[in-house]
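Lecture 7 notes: from sequence to structure.

We start with a single chain of 461 residues. Read the sequence below before looking at the structure.
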Amino acid sequence: MAATPKFRIDPEAQEVLLHSRSEAPTPPAAKGLTLPEPVFPRFPERLNDPGPKTPPERRRWDSKSIYRKMRGWLFPYIRSRVLPGEFHPITAYLFTEYKCNLDCWYCWAYNNKVKGMTEDIARRSIDWLHDRGCRVLALMGGEPLLRPQFAHKVIYYAAQKGFWIYVGTNGRLLRPDVADRLGDAGVAVFNFAIDAWDLKPGLPKALVPAQANLEHVLRKQYVYDYMVFFNINICRNNTDDVRKLTEYAHEHHIATDYHINETPMLAQDEHFKHLEDNPTYVRPENWREIDALIDWLIERNVSGYQMVNSPQRLREIKAFMRMSSGVDLRKHGWYGDGSGNGGDRLKLLNSVPGIVQDADGELSFSPWDCRAGQNNVIIRTDGTVGPCFPVYGSTFDWGNIDQPKFDPSQLAEMKETCQKQCFSTLNHNLAYCYNDARVIKWLWSQAVKNRLHGGARSFEE
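Now the structure, written as tokens:
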């Protein structure tokens, strides 16, 4: 069995990002600011509305909801295109927590020794993003609902300033009373990270333990005008679960977003315990099974299932799991049975135009105009900043919310290496849609075909 690689980025680039000669980023000095106490309920009639017993076949948005989406996404995009300078954030990850109530064996995005964000840092972060034109805010962790009252304050304050707010959660702590408070405050999306139908080794993010919370949220989304997504991580031990979750999502009008289980971009510290003997990591002998699952997902996508991933993006999963496997593809072929089937390799490579193969048989993504540190930013729990989620653990100094230090030349040099191995769905989508012609075409298509109604689909369609 091939060993799972400990990180994916080029060793020289990792040396710069983790052992740079520059000083580590310094958190901003505390100023003692607090977040205002949320008014609740703002909408008593919504609190007492149980939602429809049967969901509508087609989601319809009123003019206020459509304007909220435009204010969150379209207006900042236009602003970034017409104003001078490189740093115009459209999307921002606010890591309010780096602790988690679960232990998913593949996850390095939590550390229960790290203190959560303070009200002072949260308020100043939102103000800084607002002043820079950003209007999409994702509450991230760890698990951002570990402190539900804090999350309520953050969402209330950000919504009052016009942000389109996304909450990623495993759903266990999203109790009905918490969901109602966050919905009342102005949340735009709940993204449930669900990998399995019920508990299984290494995958505690399961639907069954969170089902009661999910069912409440599904009803109340039509009351509070938010959306619900499933974020599903494809592992070697959950292919049947992925199919079952996909069908459940389709039946309940939930959009889905798929990822392939991947090792960290950077090497991790001692808190990441589950690298070896891990039942979730994909091995070469699992490639055919995963390929069959991807083909099944593409069929569902084309037939009309709501998916954030385009068919092309799903095809890229096949190549990415091979390029991130750490095995010698010349020895194993593109399948793990040693057949070296050149026809299979050629067929797959031709179907994924975003993938290139060098003379040694190594695979990588071709340059895709990553916008990290330009139109995307992360804010760590201590108020330091970085260009993107995969480099959260970097000690390179990109500054903090008081003094950001995003250097275009440094970012460009870094991306020459890291974007070859990066499978960040959000950053790939952001790069794809950061194009005037595509934006105009998509808006026209949505206005003519859907009249700005309906569910979520890939930007590429």
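The CA atoms of residues 188 and 226 lie 5 Å apart. Keep this in mind for problem set 3.
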